[in-house]
Write a structure and sequence with these properties.
about 25% helix, 21 strands, seven-stranded mixed sheet, alpha+beta
Amino acid sequence: MNSILPTGAVDPPHEPNSKTKIKCGSCPGWSYKASNVRVCEWCECKVHAKCYRYNLGCIKCCETLIPGYNTNTSSLYDDYSAAANHKIFNPYSHTSAINMIGETLEDFEPDFQHSTSISDLLTQCRYIGRCEVPSPKPTNLSVLSLNVRSLSTAITVFREEIGFYSKFDVLSFNETNCTLGKLPNGMDDLLLDNFYEPLIRDPIRKSGRGGGLAIYINKRVCRPHDIETFKPNFDDTEHCAEFQFVKIHNCKASNRTKIIINAYRSPSKRVDKFFDRVDSVMRSLERHSRKHILLLGDLNVDLLRYETDRNGQNLISVLEKYGFVQVCARPTRITDHSATLIDHVYTNCISNTISCNVLTLDISDHLGIVTEISLGNNSERSTLPEAHDNLSPLNQFRIFNEASNQKFKSLIEDEKWETVYATANANSQHDEFLKVYNNCYDTAYPLKTKRSPRRPNERNNPKPWILPWLEDACARKNLLYLHYAKVPPYSALIPLL
């Protein structure tokens, strides 16, 4: 019996062991599976499934017959910085082109108010530098999401700048390209100060490349037994994406549970199957719908093209069906010729989402996303350890002046030394003498403590070879990178040099 194939597909050969080799009419490649072959309705050529655009035909026909098919934003505008990189994802704005079709949002008062609150949050999304990252608060949870490309390489940077990364309550890394069993020292190679042992998911590929997930939870967030990894009951037969699920119970003593979902989709995986997987995952999490859930990761779907891209619309539609909203609006991967929003943050509780900003980090070719959510009113004060990595070391000192000298002289003159003469043993007399003398000395010249002032760019644990001028150079580089993210052309950086 013949199987049902998508429109335009070629029937597979009757012999199960026969080999197929078909030249693609759209690209220079070959297809070795009959199920991966489609027939273009316009040129009637056999093409790859990835080169097939359904009713539009193959990519070659689209480029030939449809004017401006491959035109992007950077090609439409001469000033790239004023157009492409300043474009944001905000389909909830009442001025968005997609909302100008049919009846306006103002006709539906509840939907209009909800969309306005989402639009306001997206509008407030901005690029921030390291110095703009706030200190941790007991009533908020700060989450950093980042595509690190290689965790085993980036871990050195995290350790050197642990004072900065300790500001975050949760570190969510994707595309770690790290297999735990292949590390020389195992888990010890991935440990970070102030954080619990990381939760690692190896890449699904046997080579260990192009995937992998990791979550670090700060020790001030909860107790070790309050961290729970779990796997919802969903179909995981086809590895079209990677997911990692973590529950944080009693988050910062708030008696509340937060769920962090770390995700990664390789650009080589079929996006339609990924949408089915996301739908299956969200359906399996419906019993947790009353908990605040964050879905973060590199999904390789550019949401800046939401108004014209079906993939972005389908992804947003699937997650909106389960009450999730995407809250990152700025491009997260910026090059000299492109700006894309492929790293996403979804939340099912927009009212408790305080902010979502893009952090300019140069660890990989992706920027980080900082999401801050509210934990509500804490009924009790947290007894978890606080991080003091940003504090300068304490210095002890005594104040010597004329007033202190006179006080010490007066104490010595008024001392009767009765405890010294109370014993006939010379050693005991000596010990008593030192005890009385030191008591007078500490009273006149009390020991005080003061934190030494830090240089503006001084690191918490600087290496001997990181001299002050090099620390200033690193800070200047980070500032330039922040301006580059805001205004990509190099000409915009000249006044800052």
